[in-house]
Fold this protein.
Amino acid sequence: MKAFVKGFSRLTEAIAGGMLAAIFLIFLLQILLRYFFTPAGWTLELIGILWVWVIFFSCAFIVRERDHVKFDIIYLSVPMRVRQVFAMLAAAAIVVGMLYSFLPTWDYIDWMKIRKTSTVRNPFSGEKIPLRTVFSIYAVFMLVVAARYGWLFFDILRNGPPKTELELVVGYNVVDDHPRVDGEDDEEADK
């Protein structure tokens, strides 16, 4: 299972990296076309589409929960049990919010099939791309984030609140407001 997760992680990072590389190359092409040939409007639109995709794809599959900016002054000042409740409430709120808003969001994304891109065309068919395809990544993002935070909710229920950055860096664990080093049993921590 760990090999699958690691392989999937590498694949998603490669896809996001490929999209960022494509954005950069299209940007260079846009400069070349603007200053030396006839400007092409499709470059700007394609960069915008790729940017939307790289943001939501990366937030769904690559960015970890601990990578987000947090304002956790209150969270860090409360006992471990209260932290667990806070973390579970936050995870549950994200799951409920994403799932509650999914159907109305999908209805709007699906409605966007009648609108098409202005200048970008499908390279195989030559037709303009429906905006439903462009914005479908947001629906994927919503489902993946709901699943990840649902998993996190049960992980917090079983294992307690996520470790803080300091605990992750120095291997320091705080249990019931009593500092102890990982691997140390309760008798050693009481000394």
About this structure: The chain has a mean pLDDT of 86. The beta strands are 116-121, 128-130, 172-175, 178-181. The helical segments are 2-36, 41-61, 73-77, 80-111, 131-159, 165-170, 186-190.
